[in-house]
Amino acid sequence: MSISVTSAAVEPGLLRRVARSYASRRTVQILLPFLAASGAALVAAERWPQAGPALLVLLAAGVIALVVWLIRLWQFRPEPLARRLDREFAELEDSTGLLLRPIPGLNLLEQLQQQHVAERLDALTAATPALLPTPWRTSLLLTSLFLVVAGVCWVVPKSAAQPAATVATAPAVPLRFVGKPAPAKAPRIQELKLLVTPPAYTRRAAFAAAQPSFQAPAGSRVRWRVRVSRRAAAPVLELGKQRVPLRPVADDSLAFEAEQVVNSSVLYRLRFAGQTSEDYAIEVIPDRAPTLQLITPKPYTLVEFGQKPQVGVRVTVRDDYGLSRARVVATVAKGEGEAVKFTEVATDLSAQLRGQPTQHQLTYTLQLRQLGLTYGDEVYFYVQAWDNHRQMARTDTYLVQWEDTTIDASGADISLGVNVVPAYFRSQRQVIIDTEKLLSERKGLDQSTFASRANDIGHDQKVLRMRYGKFMGEEFEESIGQANALPEGEKEEHHEGDGHDHGHEHGAPSTNANPSSLETTAALMDPYMHKHDDAETADFLEPAVKAKLSVVLSQMWEAELRLRTARPAEALPYEYKALRLLKEVQQQTRVYVKKAGYTPPPMPEATVRLTGELEGAATPQRRADVAAPASQPAVRAALGLLSRLRRGQPAAPDDAALLDRAGSQLAQAALQRPGAYLTALRDLRQLSAALRARQPVPCPECLPVVERALTALLPTPTSAPIPAPSPNRLARRYLQALGQP
User: Can you tell me where the transmembrane regions are (predicted)?
Assistant: First the structure.
């Protein structure tokens, strides 16, 4: 049996031809809509110049994606191709994959099947060149759609395709003129379009003003574009005191435009071919500085002993256009007296202002230890913020103080008899420091050493407790945290061996006296005797201070008990409470004594002040009656002219100059309050133009409006005193009857 293997040699080339045919048809299907879409994008970019960069970027991205897709399409991948052929054609009997295997690795049956599949695939290729189907319908529909879009973009005129943000599509604003209407054939302004471009820091888009009078942020660029009926001299823009001629537009012979940056409120009007428009106002909104409101902490914060050395800061920041930067500036004060050193530390908080919000709440924590503070130091801080326009604002300065319990009294205080006890507080703090140090070193100590050191700290606590016990009458070691009196027998022994005579020291009577008289004398003297060995009657301190000090002794005893039993961690809260109460006792027992010093003699003024003696006290004065100059003469002259016009009297053409001078002052007021004075200014311009042209008053009803506006510019007159009428005969007799001359 002989087997022909000639067909197996052409099998890889057969599959490659099928793949190449499919890739070429798919390439044409993709290129057709892509080329149509590219043409539409280019036409749209030519018609919409503002959108051109974005369209070109999209087109470039499409080209890159197309190239990547074509590279993957033209890569010959036989395995996926064989699987697809098996799915599409049942004649191949799911054996197309055998064409990819070498003949030496196949058995006899597989070689026969490989030859059979190769013959059928060759027949299918000869019968149908486009062996694998491709969807042409979708490609043709997309191509037609993009071609229609390109045709529409090409047909639309370029002037009508400008975006809404440009001047061409800005709505024409109504423009009114003063004076006599121009003849029908005279050149005139047909329309006015305004485009306002706010500065970049406002982050606002350009907009078209719908009315000639409008509002704009400070620093905005305003563009005026006017269209005239026929060519004539260029229109002139009168912007305040500036005269800006409008320049012709390149692509439109009947259009003129001008641009100006406005930083303050101003009035403007247009002049063209002998016509003058009414005055219109541009109200400029200034950029306000940021506002800061510090929520926490309070203006003065005291970090007490035992609290965490940190203070939270929360501040609310607002701005009209956006916030760009913020920081906290802290000034650390270390030392006392002339040895104070100041260090400034600034912390940037700009990371919290991402996106430049108009309102945000900043948070920050003052870490006193990281700032280098210790007990008794102070830190002054404030918060600064900047907006997009680089305007800065800051809060008031706030103070944070870390309480110090180790303040030593000065020698002057000792000489003035103040109760000096800071050394005791320092000793209690030393007990706390030793306890905390023992707890931090506990891991490196054995149990015996740890217990021994805790017992030593407990002994120090005992000595301190006994020292304070003297103030409570606890002069013996047996008194453990309580002020109990000694038994009668022990008290007598103690008095016999203390080395001084208590009876004579405290004013007690001699023991040689009569017992009955001694008892009577003792009863009388008992309220006045100083029994410092009795806890109930010891009078070193006030009752309120004694009560608090007794609590201190109890806390010390609790701390000593736990230190003696090697439990320093449990003793630490009692030590802190004892220290806090001792500080309160120190503040409560403080006494103020005025320092002695030199008292200067009283000044001579102190002997005569408020005595009623005014001789020689009056200062010389020079008086002269000077007539006050007339205020705003132009406004008063215009009011006189308006009064004559209301009475029907004729006016001369030169009287228009009076109205023009008053109109300049009225224009300044219209900048501040356009709603109150702009209408009156418009009527005044019409009246002035009519008088200059020797025409009658155009609107008699506008005379009261202009008169009221000019009257409001005058200062409020001062009320003159009303002279009292001279009394008549009946009044004189009445006054005589009352006893008055």
Answer: 27-45, 51-74
